Amino acid sequence: MMNNNEIDESIAGPINCNACKSSRHSFYIATGAMMSQDDSRSFTFHRCDTCESVFLINPVQEEKLHSYYTENYLPYRGANAWGVYAPFVEWDDRLLNTKRVNMTLRHVQKTDDIHVLDIGCGKPDFLAKLSSMLKVNAVGVDFKAAQWDDPAYKNCSLIEGDWHTTELNYSFDVITAWHYLEHDYQPLETIEKCYTYLKPGGTLIIEVPMYEGILQKLQRETWQGWHSPRHLTLFSLRSWKKMFPDKQWQIVKHHRYGTLSAFTLWWLGRQERKKIQWGGSMQHKFWSLVVWKVLLSPFFLLEKLIPMGVQIIIVRKK
Ligand SMILES: [Zn+2]
């Protein structure tokens, strides 16, 4: 558990927007620690006057963040957290990775012998699926190996460590970052590094939460896009133009929806509001989740028309 001194240390000095470095910003929202049993801390997000991104002004020091990646962090437990219903959750994961592969294939300019890097690859099912469909040289980087000894990943080169200090020996046709950049303490450095590692004409695909969507307005402090203190920056629509200047990048597409379903984000926010024990089994919640999914399906079917809380930006290196 953290103490308040650590908050003071981490906010010492001038605070600038993570997306555009502007020092002009003001209070937007305060939340507790999410997907966590630590209720002693409050996290404050400011909104940048210049680029409209929202960012955490009192982050946990990066080297101490591991205290928030415990058994309470549901994504780490994967399908097993759902007990006998794990196969349904695995099926849903496969669907998610199929969406990611399809999104990637829509934007690759060749389909043979491509070099793909996935930053924050986690359990690298996306890379494994892509490798099963194309001749791909697949590289994944994550600060923590997640079941990487599984034979399903034998064709992927996986690197455990900090992406910011990882040296790679390739140039890439495609770099993907599925829900990575909002966790990044230096997102502008990451974009610069992606620029260096992309081939000319190479594509960068980034999916992140979007606070300018209906779910944040409905759920406010319990919206899972905050995910405090793991998420540092909620990028605005306006920030992308600043982060990807015309000189270097062409913005190919911006989708106001993601591969991650908006319903999942909503349901997790509902659990946050109910203050559930995140470290416990989720098995008993399965049927309630299914009922909610069916009841709300007419609304969530509109997720490509009404911005709900996820976005994808696709840019090309000039
Ligand atoms: Zn800004």
Explain the layout of strands and helices.
Blueprint: H1 4-10, E1 25-32, E2 42-48, E3 54-56, H2 74-77, H3 86-105, E4 112-119, H4 125-133, E5 135-142, E6 156-160, E7 172-178, H5 187-197, E8 198-209, H6 214-219, E9 233-234, H7 237-243, E10 249-255, H8 262-273, H9 286-300, E11 310-317
Parallel strand pairs: 4-5, 4-7, 5-6, 7-8
Antiparallel strand pairs: 1-2, 2-3, 3-9, 8-11, 10-11
Bound molecules: zinc ion.
Residues 17, 19-20, 22, 48, 50-51, 53 line the site of zinc ion.
Outline of this structure?
It contains nine helices and eleven strands. The protein has 318 residues and is α/β, with parallel strands linked by helices. The longest helix is centred in the N-terminal third of the chain and has 20 residues, at 86-105.
Description:
With 318 residues, the protein is α/β, with parallel strands linked by helices. The chain contains nine helices and eleven strands. A seven-stranded mixed beta sheet has the order 6-5-4-7-8-11-10. α3 crosses α4. The radius of gyration is 19 Å and the shape is globular. Bound molecules: zinc ion (ZN). The site of zinc ion (ZN) has 8 residues, from loops.
